[in-house]
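Model: Ready when you are.
Researcher: Fold this.
Model:
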Amino acid sequence: MRVFVLALDGCEVGFVERWRLRGLMQRTYGSVQVPGECFARILGRDGRIIHEPYTPMVWYAFITGTLPKGRIGRLLRRRRWTNPVVDKLVDVFARGWGLERRFGILRRMGFKRRVVDRRDYGVPTIFDHARKPHAIDVPAYSPMWNLGIYEGEFGFDKIPNVIRQAFKRFEDKKRRVAEILGSDWDLIMVWTKLLDIVGELAFGLPEMYRAYRAADAYVQELSRELGDDCVLLVVSDHGMKRLEGTRSFGMHTDRAFWSLNFETDWRPKSVTDFYGKIVEWLRS
Protein backbone atom coordinates (compact mmCIF):
# COMPACT_ATOMS: atom_id res chain seq x y z
CA MET A 1 0.00 0.00 0.00
CA ARG A 2 1.16 3.53 -0.73
CA VAL A 3 1.91 5.85 2.19
CA PHE A 4 1.93 9.66 2.19
CA VAL A 5 3.40 11.39 5.26
CA LEU A 6 2.71 15.08 5.72
CA ALA A 7 5.17 16.25 8.37
CA LEU A 8 3.71 19.43 9.87
CA ASP A 9 6.47 20.73 12.10
CA GLY A 10 5.08 22.22 15.31
CA CYS A 11 1.40 21.30 14.81
CA GLU A 12 -0.36 21.69 18.16
CA VAL A 13 -3.27 19.31 18.81
CA GLY A 14 -4.92 21.88 21.07
CA PHE A 15 -5.36 24.37 18.23
CA VAL A 16 -6.60 21.66 15.87
CA GLU A 17 -9.33 20.86 18.40
CA ARG A 18 -10.07 24.47 19.38
CA TRP A 19 -10.60 25.55 15.78
CA ARG A 20 -12.32 22.26 14.84
CA LEU A 21 -10.07 21.65 11.86
CA ARG A 22 -11.73 18.54 10.47
CA GLY A 23 -9.26 18.23 7.63
CA LEU A 24 -6.32 17.89 9.99
CA MET A 25 -8.28 15.55 12.29
CA GLN A 26 -9.16 13.21 9.39
CA ARG A 27 -10.85 9.96 10.56
CA THR A 28 -8.59 9.25 13.57
CA TYR A 29 -6.30 11.60 15.45
CA GLY A 30 -4.41 12.02 18.70
CA SER A 31 -1.04 12.99 20.17
CA VAL A 32 2.07 11.11 21.24
CA GLN A 33 4.84 11.72 23.74
CA VAL A 34 8.17 13.09 22.57
CA PRO A 35 10.91 11.20 24.47
CA GLY A 36 13.42 13.13 26.56
CA GLU A 37 16.23 11.77 24.35
CA CYS A 38 14.90 14.08 21.61
CA PHE A 39 15.29 17.24 23.71
CA ALA A 40 18.09 19.79 23.44
CA ARG A 41 19.01 23.15 24.93
CA ILE A 42 17.87 25.80 22.44
CA LEU A 43 18.22 29.57 22.31
CA GLY A 44 14.67 30.91 22.65
CA ARG A 45 13.27 33.83 20.64
CA ASP A 46 13.64 36.08 23.69
CA GLY A 47 17.31 35.19 24.16
CA ARG A 48 16.83 32.67 26.97
CA ILE A 49 18.09 29.08 26.85
CA ILE A 50 15.18 26.64 26.90
CA HIS A 51 15.02 22.83 27.01
CA GLU A 52 12.61 21.52 24.38
CA PRO A 53 12.12 18.90 21.62
CA TYR A 54 14.70 19.49 18.89
CA THR A 55 13.35 19.02 15.36
CA PRO A 56 16.19 16.96 13.74
CA MET A 57 16.30 14.57 16.71
CA VAL A 58 12.54 13.96 16.70
CA TRP A 59 12.35 13.30 12.96
CA TYR A 60 15.35 10.97 13.22
CA ALA A 61 13.38 8.97 15.81
CA PHE A 62 10.31 9.03 13.57
CA ILE A 63 11.95 7.70 10.40
CA THR A 64 14.23 5.15 12.13
CA GLY A 65 12.14 4.00 15.09
CA THR A 66 15.20 4.48 17.32
CA LEU A 67 16.17 7.19 19.78
CA PRO A 68 19.04 9.57 18.93
CA LYS A 69 21.46 8.41 21.60
CA GLY A 70 25.25 8.52 21.73
CA ARG A 71 27.16 9.74 18.71
CA ILE A 72 24.17 10.32 16.41
CA GLY A 73 22.54 12.38 19.16
CA ARG A 74 25.61 14.58 19.39
CA LEU A 75 25.84 14.94 15.62
CA LEU A 76 22.19 15.95 15.27
CA ARG A 77 22.83 18.90 17.60
CA ARG A 78 25.34 20.42 15.21
CA ARG A 79 26.48 20.50 11.61
CA ARG A 80 29.27 18.18 10.49
CA TRP A 81 32.61 19.25 9.04
CA THR A 82 33.33 18.06 5.51
CA ASN A 83 36.91 17.24 6.55
CA PRO A 84 36.60 13.85 8.36
CA VAL A 85 39.63 14.44 10.58
CA VAL A 86 38.37 17.82 11.77
CA ASP A 87 34.88 16.41 12.27
CA LYS A 88 36.20 13.56 14.41
CA LEU A 89 38.27 15.91 16.57
CA VAL A 90 35.29 18.21 17.12
CA ASP A 91 33.12 15.22 18.02
CA VAL A 92 35.67 13.86 20.52
CA PHE A 93 36.67 17.13 22.12
CA ALA A 94 33.49 18.89 23.24
CA ARG A 95 35.56 21.79 24.54
CA GLY A 96 36.96 22.31 21.06
CA TRP A 97 33.45 22.55 19.62
CA GLY A 98 32.58 25.16 22.25
CA LEU A 99 35.57 27.23 21.20
CA GLU A 100 34.60 26.88 17.55
CA ARG A 101 31.06 28.09 18.19
CA ARG A 102 32.42 31.09 20.05
CA PHE A 103 35.33 32.13 17.87
CA GLY A 104 34.79 30.42 14.49
CA ILE A 105 38.43 29.33 14.31
CA LEU A 106 37.88 26.39 11.94
CA ARG A 107 35.74 28.40 9.55
CA ARG A 108 38.40 31.10 9.40
CA MET A 109 40.90 28.40 8.45
CA GLY A 110 38.74 27.51 5.44
CA PHE A 111 37.07 24.33 6.73
CA LYS A 112 33.45 23.87 5.61
CA ARG A 113 30.42 22.34 7.31
CA ARG A 114 27.41 20.33 6.17
CA VAL A 115 24.14 19.19 7.71
CA VAL A 116 23.74 15.71 9.16
CA ASP A 117 21.78 13.55 6.69
CA ARG A 118 21.20 9.93 5.64
CA ARG A 119 24.93 9.40 5.02
CA ASP A 120 25.45 9.47 8.79
CA TYR A 121 22.90 6.80 9.72
CA GLY A 122 23.84 3.37 10.97
CA VAL A 123 20.25 2.11 11.01
CA PRO A 124 17.57 1.68 8.30
CA THR A 125 14.84 4.25 7.74
CA ILE A 126 11.29 4.04 6.44
CA PHE A 127 12.66 5.00 3.01
CA ASP A 128 14.79 1.84 2.91
CA HIS A 129 11.59 -0.24 3.01
CA ALA A 130 9.96 1.53 0.06
CA ARG A 131 10.31 0.65 -3.61
CA LYS A 132 10.14 4.22 -4.94
CA PRO A 133 10.38 6.67 -2.03
CA HIS A 134 10.46 10.46 -2.16
CA ALA A 135 11.75 12.52 0.78
CA ILE A 136 11.11 16.25 0.42
CA ASP A 137 13.26 18.34 2.78
CA VAL A 138 13.04 15.78 5.61
CA PRO A 139 15.21 17.05 8.52
CA ALA A 140 18.32 14.99 9.29
CA TYR A 141 17.74 12.92 6.14
CA SER A 142 17.39 14.94 2.94
CA PRO A 143 20.55 16.58 1.56
CA MET A 144 20.65 20.32 2.19
CA TRP A 145 17.62 20.35 4.49
CA ASN A 146 17.29 23.60 6.39
CA LEU A 147 15.65 24.19 9.77
CA GLY A 148 14.66 27.78 9.11
CA ILE A 149 14.27 30.54 6.59
CA TYR A 150 15.82 33.13 8.85
CA GLU A 151 19.21 31.59 9.61
CA GLY A 152 21.92 34.18 9.88
CA GLU A 153 20.99 37.80 10.44
CA PHE A 154 17.62 38.11 12.15
CA GLY A 155 15.81 40.88 13.97
CA PHE A 156 12.33 41.57 15.26
CA ASP A 157 11.70 43.98 12.40
CA LYS A 158 12.08 41.09 9.94
CA ILE A 159 9.35 38.90 11.47
CA PRO A 160 6.57 39.97 9.04
CA ASN A 161 8.80 39.10 6.09
CA VAL A 162 9.81 35.78 7.68
CA ILE A 163 6.16 34.83 8.01
CA ARG A 164 5.41 35.84 4.42
CA GLN A 165 8.30 33.69 3.24
CA ALA A 166 7.04 30.77 5.34
CA PHE A 167 3.67 30.88 3.56
CA LYS A 168 5.41 31.16 0.20
CA ARG A 169 7.60 28.13 0.89
CA PHE A 170 4.54 26.18 1.98
CA GLU A 171 2.97 26.84 -1.42
CA ASP A 172 6.24 25.88 -3.12
CA LYS A 173 6.22 22.53 -1.27
CA LYS A 174 2.67 21.88 -2.45
CA ARG A 175 3.73 22.41 -6.06
CA ARG A 176 6.66 20.02 -5.64
CA VAL A 177 4.36 17.39 -4.21
CA ALA A 178 1.88 17.82 -7.06
CA GLU A 179 4.63 17.02 -9.55
CA ILE A 180 5.51 13.77 -7.74
CA LEU A 181 1.94 12.56 -7.23
CA GLY A 182 1.60 11.91 -10.94
CA SER A 183 4.65 9.63 -10.99
CA ASP A 184 5.25 6.08 -9.79
CA TRP A 185 5.77 6.11 -6.00
CA ASP A 186 4.93 4.13 -2.89
CA LEU A 187 6.18 6.47 -0.13
CA ILE A 188 6.22 10.26 0.00
CA MET A 189 7.22 12.26 3.05
CA VAL A 190 7.17 16.04 2.82
CA TRP A 191 8.19 18.33 5.67
CA THR A 192 6.95 21.88 6.12
CA LYS A 193 7.90 24.34 8.84
CA LEU A 194 5.00 26.78 8.34
CA LEU A 195 3.15 26.03 11.61
CA ASP A 196 6.39 25.97 13.59
CA ILE A 197 7.60 29.34 12.31
CA VAL A 198 4.25 31.04 12.80
CA GLY A 199 3.82 29.39 16.20
CA GLU A 200 7.21 30.61 17.38
CA LEU A 201 6.96 34.13 15.99
CA ALA A 202 3.24 34.96 15.96
CA PHE A 203 1.75 32.85 18.74
CA GLY A 204 -1.94 33.67 19.22
CA LEU A 205 -1.97 36.19 16.37
CA PRO A 206 -4.17 36.07 13.24
CA GLU A 207 -1.26 34.73 11.17
CA MET A 208 -1.27 31.60 13.29
CA TYR A 209 -4.93 30.88 12.62
CA ARG A 210 -4.39 31.51 8.91
CA ALA A 211 -1.49 29.04 8.85
CA TYR A 212 -3.55 26.30 10.51
CA ARG A 213 -6.41 26.93 8.09
CA ALA A 214 -3.99 26.62 5.18
CA ALA A 215 -2.67 23.30 6.51
CA ASP A 216 -6.23 22.08 7.10
CA ALA A 217 -7.24 22.93 3.53
CA TYR A 218 -4.15 21.17 2.16
CA VAL A 219 -4.92 17.94 4.01
CA GLN A 220 -8.43 18.00 2.55
CA GLU A 221 -6.93 18.54 -0.90
CA LEU A 222 -4.54 15.61 -0.43
CA SER A 223 -7.33 13.39 0.83
CA ARG A 224 -9.34 13.98 -2.34
CA GLU A 225 -6.30 13.43 -4.54
CA LEU A 226 -5.05 10.26 -2.84
CA GLY A 227 -8.36 8.51 -2.24
CA ASP A 228 -8.93 5.56 0.06
CA ASP A 229 -6.27 3.26 -1.38
CA CYS A 230 -3.42 5.27 0.19
CA VAL A 231 -2.49 5.89 3.82
CA LEU A 232 -2.41 9.60 4.60
CA LEU A 233 -0.53 10.20 7.84
CA VAL A 234 -0.32 13.74 9.17
CA VAL A 235 2.22 14.05 11.98
CA SER A 236 4.20 16.66 13.89
CA ASP A 237 7.41 16.54 15.89
CA HIS A 238 6.13 18.58 18.85
CA GLY A 239 3.35 20.89 19.93
CA MET A 240 3.45 24.59 20.73
CA LYS A 241 2.68 26.85 23.69
CA ARG A 242 3.29 30.48 24.55
CA LEU A 243 6.83 31.22 25.69
CA GLU A 244 6.47 32.35 29.30
CA GLY A 245 6.98 36.06 29.77
CA THR A 246 6.33 36.96 26.13
CA ARG A 247 3.27 38.16 24.26
CA SER A 248 3.50 36.39 20.91
CA PHE A 249 6.49 34.03 20.97
CA GLY A 250 6.03 30.28 21.21
CA MET A 251 8.07 27.31 22.41
CA HIS A 252 7.89 23.55 21.77
CA THR A 253 5.90 21.13 23.93
CA ASP A 254 6.41 17.38 24.38
CA ARG A 255 3.17 16.29 22.65
CA ALA A 256 3.20 15.60 18.90
CA PHE A 257 0.00 15.59 16.82
CA TRP A 258 -0.93 12.79 14.42
CA SER A 259 -3.94 11.78 12.31
CA LEU A 260 -4.93 9.10 9.78
CA ASN A 261 -7.44 8.98 6.94
CA PHE A 262 -9.08 5.78 8.20
CA GLU A 263 -10.51 4.49 11.44
CA THR A 264 -8.22 2.28 13.52
CA ASP A 265 -7.75 1.01 17.07
CA TRP A 266 -3.99 1.50 16.78
CA ARG A 267 -2.72 4.25 19.04
CA PRO A 268 0.98 5.18 18.98
CA LYS A 269 2.54 5.99 22.34
CA SER A 270 5.78 7.58 21.13
CA VAL A 271 7.20 9.09 17.94
CA THR A 272 9.29 5.93 17.51
CA ASP A 273 6.13 3.81 17.06
CA PHE A 274 5.41 5.14 13.56
CA TYR A 275 8.41 3.44 11.95
CA GLY A 276 7.13 -0.11 12.36
CA LYS A 277 3.60 0.80 11.34
CA ILE A 278 4.73 2.56 8.16
CA VAL A 279 6.80 -0.48 7.23
CA GLU A 280 3.73 -2.67 7.84
CA TRP A 281 1.58 -0.46 5.59
CA LEU A 282 4.17 -0.51 2.83
CA ARG A 283 4.24 -4.31 2.88
CA SER A 284 0.47 -4.74 2.90
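Researcher: Now this one.
Model:
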Amino acid sequence: MILQSLDEPDKEPVVVIPTIQNTVDDIYLMISVFILKKLDPGKSLYTPDRKSMYDIFSDNERMELYEKSREIIKDFNFKVVFNLLEGSLLLSQFESMKKYTNDYEVTVPAFKNEYNIMTGKTEFRDFLKKAE
Protein backbone atom coordinates (compact mmCIF):
# COMPACT_ATOMS: atom_id res chain seq x y z
CA MET A 1 0.00 0.00 0.00
CA ILE A 2 1.32 3.42 -0.89
CA LEU A 3 0.41 6.69 0.78
CA GLN A 4 1.40 9.88 -1.01
CA SER A 5 0.87 13.26 0.64
CA LEU A 6 -1.25 15.66 -1.41
CA ASP A 7 -0.05 18.55 0.75
CA GLU A 8 3.61 17.69 0.18
CA PRO A 9 3.83 16.04 -3.27
CA ASP A 10 7.64 16.13 -3.22
CA LYS A 11 7.73 14.10 -0.01
CA GLU A 12 8.69 10.43 -0.38
CA PRO A 13 5.60 8.17 -0.41
CA VAL A 14 5.09 5.80 2.51
CA VAL A 15 5.03 2.14 1.46
CA VAL A 16 3.57 -0.43 3.84
CA ILE A 17 3.38 -4.13 2.98
CA PRO A 18 0.03 -5.38 4.37
CA THR A 19 -0.92 -8.80 5.64
CA ILE A 20 -2.90 -11.07 3.33
CA GLN A 21 -5.72 -12.04 5.66
CA ASN A 22 -6.15 -8.61 7.33
CA THR A 23 -5.60 -6.20 4.46
CA VAL A 24 -8.69 -4.13 5.30
CA ASP A 25 -7.55 -3.81 8.91
CA ASP A 26 -4.11 -2.75 7.66
CA ILE A 27 -5.70 -0.04 5.51
CA TYR A 28 -7.59 1.34 8.49
CA LEU A 29 -4.46 1.12 10.64
CA MET A 30 -2.64 3.23 8.05
CA ILE A 31 -5.52 5.73 8.11
CA SER A 32 -5.34 5.93 11.91
CA VAL A 33 -1.55 6.38 11.93
CA PHE A 34 -0.76 8.43 8.83
CA ILE A 35 -3.94 10.37 7.99
CA LEU A 36 -5.78 10.88 11.28
CA LYS A 37 -2.49 10.80 13.22
CA LYS A 38 -4.31 9.45 16.28
CA LEU A 39 -2.46 6.19 16.81
CA ASP A 40 1.18 5.55 17.61
CA PRO A 41 1.82 1.88 16.84
CA GLY A 42 5.05 1.87 18.86
CA LYS A 43 7.02 0.68 15.83
CA SER A 44 7.40 2.18 12.39
CA LEU A 45 4.98 0.77 9.82
CA TYR A 46 7.32 2.04 7.13
CA THR A 47 10.75 0.48 6.88
CA PRO A 48 13.35 1.30 4.21
CA ASP A 49 13.75 -2.41 3.48
CA ARG A 50 9.94 -2.71 3.14
CA LYS A 51 9.25 -5.27 5.82
CA SER A 52 5.70 -6.58 5.89
CA MET A 53 3.27 -6.12 8.74
CA TYR A 54 3.98 -9.78 9.57
CA ASP A 55 7.65 -8.94 10.16
CA ILE A 56 7.03 -5.73 12.12
CA PHE A 57 4.35 -6.94 14.56
CA SER A 58 3.37 -10.19 16.20
CA ASP A 59 -0.17 -11.45 15.59
CA ASN A 60 -1.22 -10.24 19.06
CA GLU A 61 0.31 -6.79 18.51
CA ARG A 62 -1.50 -6.43 15.18
CA MET A 63 -4.84 -7.51 16.66
CA GLU A 64 -4.46 -4.94 19.46
CA LEU A 65 -3.63 -2.22 16.94
CA TYR A 66 -6.63 -3.15 14.78
CA GLU A 67 -8.91 -2.89 17.81
CA LYS A 68 -7.45 0.50 18.76
CA SER A 69 -7.90 1.65 15.18
CA ARG A 70 -11.58 0.60 15.20
CA GLU A 71 -12.11 2.65 18.36
CA ILE A 72 -10.39 5.70 16.86
CA ILE A 73 -12.38 5.48 13.62
CA LYS A 74 -15.65 5.70 15.61
CA ASP A 75 -14.84 9.31 16.50
CA PHE A 76 -14.42 10.50 12.91
CA ASN A 77 -16.82 11.14 10.06
CA PHE A 78 -15.14 10.21 6.78
CA LYS A 79 -15.65 7.93 3.82
CA VAL A 80 -13.26 5.33 2.42
CA VAL A 81 -13.68 4.33 -1.21
CA PHE A 82 -12.36 0.90 -2.07
CA ASN A 83 -11.74 0.92 -5.83
CA LEU A 84 -11.27 -2.79 -6.49
CA LEU A 85 -10.02 -4.22 -9.75
CA GLU A 86 -11.01 -7.61 -11.09
CA GLY A 87 -9.52 -10.38 -8.96
CA SER A 88 -8.67 -8.09 -6.03
CA LEU A 89 -7.93 -9.82 -2.74
CA LEU A 90 -10.21 -7.30 -1.01
CA LEU A 91 -13.27 -8.73 -2.76
CA SER A 92 -13.00 -11.68 -0.37
CA GLN A 93 -12.60 -9.41 2.68
CA PHE A 94 -15.90 -7.54 2.50
CA GLU A 95 -16.94 -8.76 5.98
CA SER A 96 -13.89 -7.02 7.47
CA MET A 97 -15.11 -3.68 6.10
CA LYS A 98 -18.33 -4.06 8.10
CA LYS A 99 -16.35 -3.97 11.38
CA TYR A 100 -15.67 -0.26 10.86
CA THR A 101 -18.31 2.40 11.53
CA ASN A 102 -17.26 4.96 8.93
CA ASP A 103 -18.93 5.39 5.56
CA TYR A 104 -17.42 3.31 2.80
CA GLU A 105 -18.11 2.50 -0.81
CA VAL A 106 -16.85 -0.42 -2.87
CA THR A 107 -16.47 0.07 -6.61
CA VAL A 108 -15.77 -2.71 -9.08
CA PRO A 109 -15.18 -2.64 -12.85
CA ALA A 110 -18.12 -2.22 -15.20
CA PHE A 111 -16.02 -2.41 -18.37
CA LYS A 112 -12.49 -3.49 -19.13
CA ASN A 113 -10.41 -3.06 -22.27
CA GLU A 114 -7.06 -4.79 -21.95
CA TYR A 115 -4.32 -6.34 -24.03
CA ASN A 116 -4.10 -10.13 -23.61
CA ILE A 117 -0.50 -11.25 -24.04
CA MET A 118 -1.61 -14.87 -24.60
CA THR A 119 -3.82 -14.07 -27.61
CA GLY A 120 -1.92 -11.00 -28.80
CA LYS A 121 -5.21 -9.07 -28.96
CA THR A 122 -6.93 -6.34 -27.02
CA GLU A 123 -10.06 -7.72 -25.39
CA PHE A 124 -13.12 -5.84 -24.18
CA ARG A 125 -15.24 -7.13 -21.31
CA ASP A 126 -18.65 -5.85 -20.22
CA PHE A 127 -19.21 -6.88 -16.60
CA LEU A 128 -22.72 -5.39 -16.67
CA LYS A 129 -23.89 -7.65 -19.50
CA LYS A 130 -25.72 -10.72 -18.25
CA ALA A 131 -24.19 -14.07 -19.13
CA GLU A 132 -26.02 -15.55 -22.07
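Researcher: Key takeaway?
Model: The radius of gyration is 18 Å.
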